[in-house]
Amino acid sequence: MSAQREMKEKNLWHTPVTIIITVIGVIAIVALVTVAVLQNKPLHQKYKYGIVLDAGSSHTALYIYEWPAEKDNNTGRVEQTHSCKVKGPGISSYASDPVKAGESLSECMQEAQLKVPKDRHQETPLYLGATAGMRLLNIENSSASDRVFQAVGEALQKSPFSFQGARILSGQEEGAFGWVTVNYLDDRLSQGLETTGALDLGGASTQISFISDSFDGSESPANSVTFRLYGNDYNLYTHSFLCYGKDQVLRLVLAHLTQSGLGNVADPCFHSGYMETKNYSVLYDSPCVSDRKPSGAPATFTHSGRGDFLQCQEMVKKVFNFTNCKYSQCSFNGVFQPLVQGPFGAFSAYYFVMNFLNLTDTSIPLEVVKEKLTRYCATPWNEIQQQHPKVKVKYLAEYCFSGTYILTLLTEGYNFTSESYSDIKFIKKIKGSDAGWTLGYMLNLTNMIPAEAPDTPLLPHAGYVSFVTVIALLLFVLFIVSLRPLWPSCSKQPQIV
Ligand SMILES: Nc1ccn([C@@H]2O[C@H](COP(=O)(O)OP(=O)(O)OP(=O)(O)O)[C@@H](O)[C@H]2O)c(=O)n1
Ligand SMILES: [Ca+2]
Predict the structure, then answer these.
(1) Segments forming the whole domain that contains residue 28
(2) Residue 175: CB within 6 Å of ligand 1?
(3) What phi, psi does 324 have (nearest 5°)?
(4) Structurally, how many domains does the chain consist of?
(5) Does 482 fall in a domain?
(6) What average pLDDT does range 79-86 have in this prediction?
(7) Is 131 touching ligand 1 by the criterion CB < 6 Å?
């Protein structure tokens, strides 16, 4: 009898209905988890590209940016994947032969064609932005600057990329986009963190941009740029000083020096033993200094070095005008500037120069930095050349001047103190992308930074899959438990002996 019952119980557990329900249950759970995994898996990554040409006063550089295709207009990272330095000078130097300006870009454009996958060429936007060199040419000779743009535009139109135009950036744009780049690369914008100020030193202009608690734009609207990025409002202070890039300031200093000693210039910003014959007309061939050309000057002058940091600093100070500030506070030349605030990233020539001089460590007290520079400037020119046989002589000759200018600009010009100097970081790249205005410019033109914070999924993909799996397993266990009445041990009747 009991054997018969056991048989029946076993049969109950093994009834076709129970087996079918169990199998369907298992299949359903496996299907649910599989769909959860596959449906929400990030799609196979496809990339989009953007190209920006930075037509600076001293040279042109091409940058290629890349970002995951399904993440544009999102917080998806845009990264620089390639850069190419155009051989030769900046496009403004081709004023007398504009076609050459276009031709000079061809090598880097060829390189870009190899770096961007062919099937993406047509949809890849290509921008050219020109800065202070073209601003100066435009002031000096606007039709010559138009001809340069015409030639450059024609050359770029021939590329397989989607050419979006070549134009001069305003100083305000140059400053603001440099700030956007630095803060975007540091994830400060998407996370609403405290921002970093941006210091950019070029050959012909220099920019300073930062957020100040005491600046709302009302005192000097011309220095104010407002943004709404990822749901946060920013009121940025920015200023670009045309003619205060390091090449133009060198002209300004030399112009001062040549006022007194015609024919012979003993320059404290160059090493002793340095001696070059230079052309007056070349020195004064810039709107930054052209009004200062001494009358009756000979064709050439001898530029010789004296290697004296303190005297060099005295000369450099002369290029700043500290009188006539009509605001509550100014940097120089009557330009409003609130007190510098927060961390700063200093890039372009700030980095080239301070890196060469081994002075990028801003935890070194400012006084010690000045002592080191004093010793460097006092080193004779032949020793400097022996120590750096591979460095371009033009760059090498100017590092004493450039270092002195940088320290003077920061402390006397922008009012960085011995304490706030350590808030500056001399940087070239952030996470593999060059610091500069180009990335910010492209992000803006491609609407890649949303004004509002994008909706983010409640759970990341891995969290979502784990959640579905756990719930599915729980349901499965519940289902098995619900079949308990059919379990052999539970369905056993009490034995009547
Ligand atoms: N290894 C290097 C490379 C460049 N430079 C100097 O750095 C300056 C150029 O800086 P850059 O930021 O490239 O200027 P541009 O963009 O060309 O100029 P601007 O922004 O004013 O248009 C030039 O004076 C150049 O001599 C340097 O001292 N050492
Ligand atoms: Ca520049």
Answers:
(1) 2-39+458-491
(2) no
(3) 55, 65
(4) 1
(5) yes
(6) 98
(7) yes
